[in-house]
């Protein structure tokens, strides 16, 4: 509706659900009065910051497709689901400062992140980082409850940075990065629960024995590139692995 001013909302202190998408808002300060707010959607505005006063009951926020560059000032203690996709965020440092105790889903697709540093979110279960320019995986050791990690369409050439503390990670999407050496996949052995891996559109996926070599390195995978691992594939991979182990003795 091309709204630029929402000061009228200050009066409605008991509002719980607010959708202000597709306007021309640059200032959300009138919402600081809405201390009962549970759900807020402000997609497609002109916001340059996500900073707001703490809203004690807020559980879901979507700031998608604004002009936000920084993540400071998001400190709502009951926030479970946060979307900042399609902004201009370059770093996750400053996110929450230990305030986002409840955050489980974080959507940051289509930003300008170059690194994964800063995601110190102990309850996080799903992290969506596709379509950034990430070259370095770092600071992931605190994501102990993470089950899903999307890194499609980034600039990764190595898989350093994964660690054994990520003991719940089950799904990892690395499609369309720059991973050329299949030995990089060996670094994923530190992920004890990894069941589904996507490596399509990486240079390494063009190798003739690509699928078999991945299964040799990661015998517990249930799905590779969206396709279930067949029993005969698994048997072939096990045979190759055993043969190589014997040769190393």
UniProtKB/TrEMBL annotation:
<dbReference type="Pfam" id="PF14580">
    <property type="entry name" value="LRR_9"/>
</dbReference>
<protein>
    <submittedName>
        <fullName>LRC23 protein</fullName>
    </submittedName>
</protein>
<dbReference type="InterPro" id="IPR050836">
    <property type="entry name" value="SDS22/Internalin_LRR"/>
</dbReference>
<dbReference type="InterPro" id="IPR032675">
    <property type="entry name" value="LRR_dom_sf"/>
</dbReference>
<keyword id="KW-0433">Leucine-rich repeat</keyword>
<keyword id="KW-0677">Repeat</keyword>
<dbReference type="InterPro" id="IPR001611">
    <property type="entry name" value="Leu-rich_rpt"/>
</dbReference>
<dbReference type="Pfam" id="PF13516">
    <property type="entry name" value="LRR_6"/>
</dbReference>
<dbReference type="InterPro" id="IPR003591">
    <property type="entry name" value="Leu-rich_rpt_typical-subtyp"/>
</dbReference>
């Amino acid at each position: 509706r091309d709204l630029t001013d929402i000061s009228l909302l200050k009066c409605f202190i008991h509002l719980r659900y607010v959708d202000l998408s597709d306007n021309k808002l640059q200032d959300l300060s009138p919402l600081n009065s809405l201390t009962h707010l549970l759900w807020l959607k402000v997609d497609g505005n002109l916001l340059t910051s996500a900073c707001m006063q703490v809203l004690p009951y807020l559980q879901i926020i979507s700031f998608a497709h604004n002009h936000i560059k920084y993540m400071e000032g998001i400190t709502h203690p009951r926030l479970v689901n946060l979307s900042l996709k399609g902004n201009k965020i370059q770093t996750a440092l400053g996110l929450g400062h230990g305030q986002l105790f409840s955050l489980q889903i974080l959507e940051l697709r289509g930003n300008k992140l170059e690194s994964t540093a800063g995601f110190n979110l102990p309850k996080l279960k799903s992290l969506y980082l596709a379509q950034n320019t990430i070259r370095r995986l770092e600071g992931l050791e605190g994501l102990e409850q993470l089950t899903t990690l999307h890194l499609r369409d980034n600039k990764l050439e190595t898989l350093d940075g994964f660690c054994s503390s990520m003991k719940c990670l089950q799904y990892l999407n690395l499609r369309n990065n720059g991973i050329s050496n299949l030995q990089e996949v060996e670094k994923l052995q530190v992920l004890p629960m990894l069941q589904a891996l996507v490596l399509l559109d990486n240079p390494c996926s063009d190798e003739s024995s690509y699928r078999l070599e991945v299964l040799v390195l990661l015998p517990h995978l249930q799905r590779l590139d969206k396709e279930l691992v067949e029993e005969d594939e698994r048997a072939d991979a096990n045979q190759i692995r055993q043969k190589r182990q014997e040769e190393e003795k």
